[in-house]
Amino acid sequence: MSLPFPTRQLYYDGQVRAASSGKTFQTVNPATATPLADIQVASNSDIDAAIAAAERAFQVWSKTTYIARARILQKAAALLRERNDEIARVETLDSGKAFTETSTVDVVTGADVLEYYANFIGGGGLNGETTQLREDAWVYTKKSPLGVCAGIGAWNYPIQIALWKSAACLAAGNTMIYKPSEFTPLHGETLAQIYTEAGLPAGVFNVVNGAGDVGAYLTSHPTIAKVSFTGQVSTGMKVAGSAGGNMKYVTMELGGKSPLIVCPDADLESAVDGAMMANFYSTGQVCTNGTRVFVPRSLKAAFEKRLLEKIPFVRAGPLFDEQTNYGPLSSEIHYKKVVEYIRYGIENDRATLLTGGPGKPDVPQDLQAGYWVKPTVFTDCNDDMRIVKEEIFGPVMSILYYDTVEEAVRRANTTEMGLAAGVFTKDLNQAHKVIDQLQAGITWVNTWGESPAEMAVGGWKKSGLGVENGHKGIEAWLQNKSTLVDMSGAVATVFAKL
């Protein structure tokens, strides 16, 4: 049976390479549960060859001037924008996200970050500092790249996350071995070819395919200087442990169970819109989703009424229909996990099911085999429920009611995770006070979800290590060298004749 896309191979040392393992897996269209392409799996020797190519390329790329690097990365960003719709169509088929989303967010925001770092280094952003220590002594610093780095991608925002990792990595002068998620691997070769077309030297950006064993081999490889991982907390802790045990640099962007606090004076329309964006965008498959929605008891009836009125605006359907804004879950295994959580919420937690449930939404016949689930809202929840405590990573909102804002903040912080948080209120003084108390690395006031290239993002607690994007994001791909120069002509010493 012919598949929609040709077999995906590996990409290293500037060209497509056949894997030597003899193993393949299939990537599947989540909307229809039908295969899209065969993907070749990298063997350990393939990974070694890719790393060797990256090590050779590092000797050239790390010495390439900032402005020359910037021009190549700017060209790659321009190519991404030119081919936005073409790439977005593949992202839609591979990830199950509606084309209205992939065509306006996924490629665009990834290109934004690439362009941001190109402009940053081209404008002198990696220049060191000079300090006059005293009249005859001064200190200067230099920022140096780390070497060959590993980027391990996630399945929910495939090409965006690949660009978030590779943009800062390459701008800093490093080379990268990138492993896409085995659930959404089609973008890897496309991005590698765009980098090559833009002028990136062979071996600077390389792609290897496979599951967790490929990632584990990359993480433990002695040549790898840094590992950047995006994924669930439990896997991230294992990756960080393996990398840290070998003194590698790490950046971890992990999961969350983020609180969204609606204050008593909040604009109801904005609060409901924010809660829906924080739970149903990307079918709830976003690390920063605000799945614990804290609402004052005084607003219970009004909030629930307006929410139910807006639920029909979540439109499942053919993914390339311009009216569709809600797709299936990304894979069969994830679909089963989310449905199990919904059933648990009904049968064990005994939360009140306001809307949705474990059934599938009304979609055309040709989509009914796909991994679709209804947007689901539980109300009258409490902090001890499993659906409230654990990350579901699906379109499942839990509404929790509170009596005072102080109580809401305290309960919001009662979690091992701290990725994101937000508050809706008309009182900006209160907004700043609440945000300051929330234990999370990414916070929003009267909005939810926007994460521009200029904004450094990262988690607290078990939600991550380090940040991505913004000026701070590139620092994680560099090492500092400080030099003190003494011009006095004499060395201060305690070992002198008395």
TrEMBL record:
Swiss-Prot/TrEMBL keywords: Metal-binding, NAD, Oxidoreductase
One Pfam family cited in the UniProt record for this chain: Aldedh
Tagged with keyword Metal-binding: yes
Gene Ontology MF term list: aldehyde dehydrogenase (NAD+) activity; metal ion binding
Residues at the active site: 253
Classification via PROSITE patterns: ALDEHYDE_DEHYDR_CYS, ALDEHYDE_DEHYDR_GLU
UniProt keyword annotation of Metal-binding present: yes
InterPro entries recorded: Ald_DH/histidinol_DH (IPR016161), Ald_DH_C (IPR016163), Ald_DH_CS_CYS (IPR016160), Ald_DH_CS_GLU (IPR029510), Ald_DH_N (IPR016162), Aldehyde_DH_dom (IPR015590)
Protein name listed in UniProt: aldehyde dehydrogenase (NAD(+))
Organism ancestry: Eukaryota, Fungi, Dikarya, Ascomycota, Pezizomycotina
